[in-house]
Design a protein that fits this description.
single chain; 45% helix; seven-stranded mixed beta sheet; Malonate_beta; alpha/beta; Acetyl_CoA_COase_Trfase_b_su; 11 helices; COA_CT_N
């Protein structure tokens, strides 16, 4: 068993992708033009690897964000590489586009350039889907996926997470800074994982698959996600947007007055919500399947 959480972006690509060819490899040294002006360190790949390869014999285009460089934050060059990869995918039509996401959001050092980059990534991702190419996002790094990249991820066809992964719009520190520790204590790690972690996201339906922190498990889930996409509508449609809006409206009505994820889990039918954090991934998935079956029977 090889931990996805502990791996670098390049190690993740090596573990998941066969016959990988990198676009703009290290020798090209595509670095940020903004960071040197702030006496900040640069990275030879600006914190993201892009290229093509195969998974289960099927061609995929791949991007992997490096959480070890500025938390995977998106700057101008970082974003341009993602957009370029997605535009190339629209032209060459791979079986899927896979994004190994690990990012705190926009790189604040680059201000508006970073914000514009994230908006361009979002638009490019939707263009990939419009071309009939499924987008699969994998989240399992220690930095989680927040801010602009959290929004980008929710634009994908499939999100795959581990229990250790985190996904949200605003990070814990951002919420605490804006609204105070009474609203959200970012030092309460149990609260952070209850609120943004993989299990909570899976229970709410924000991620399609939850897997153990293992390269092989993530790879199998990507293959399954590609197969599932064949049977479903890939492009984003008005009907899908309306269904998403209905789901979010119902979620707000059902859980809007809850102050802790455990209260939400209890309202969903989990008999012992305090035990969720300690459940093995497989046991948790079995419990979730049972809850959803009960909902269908009474729905």
């Amino acid at each position: 068993m090889s931990s996805y959480l502990e791996a670098t972006a390049r190690q993740r690509v090596a573990a998941l992708i066969s016959d990988f060819t990198e676009f703009l490899p290290p020798a090209k040294e595509w670095t940020s033009p903004h960071l040197p002006q702030l006496n900040a360190p640069v990275s030879f790949d600006d914190g993201v690897i892009i290229g093509r390869g195969t998974i289960d014999g099927k061609q995929v285009y791949v991007a992997a964000q490096e959480g070890g460089f500025m938390g995977g934050a998106v700057g101008e060059v970082h974003g341009a590489k993602l957009v370029g990869l997605m535009r190339a995918a629209v032209i060459h039509k791979p079986q899927a586009l896979v994004l190994l996401a690990e990012s705190g959001g926009v790189r604040l050092h680059e201000a508006n350039a970073g914000l514009i980059a994230v908006s361009e990534v979002m638009r490019a991702l939707l263009a990939v889907r419009a071309a009939g190419i499924p987008v699969i996002v994998v989240i399992g790094g220690s930095n989680g996926c927040f801010g602009g990249m959290g929004i980008v991820s929710r634009c994908a066809n499939v999100i795959i997470m581990s229990e250790e992964a985190r996904l949200a719009m605003s990070g814990p520190e951002v919420i605490e800074t804006a609204n105070g520790v009474e609203e959200f204590d970012s030092r309460d790690r149990a609260l952070v994982w209850r609120t943004t972690g993989g299990k909570h996201r899976y229970l709410l339906g924000d991620c399609k698959m939850l897997v153990a922190d293992d390269d092989a498990a993530f790879k199998a889930a990507i293959v399954q996600g590609m197969q599932d996409s064949i049977q479903s509508e890939v492009a984003l449609s008005l009907a899908a947007l309306e269904a998403e809006q209905e789901m979010l409206t119902a979620r707000l009505q059902d859980f809007g007055n809850k102050t802790d994820p455990m209260d939400i889990w209890a309202a969903m039918g989990v008999e012992h919500p305090e035990d969720i954090a300690m459940l093995d991934t497989q046991v948790f998935l079995q419990l979730t399947a049972s809850i959803r079956q009960t909902e269908r029977q009474h729905g």
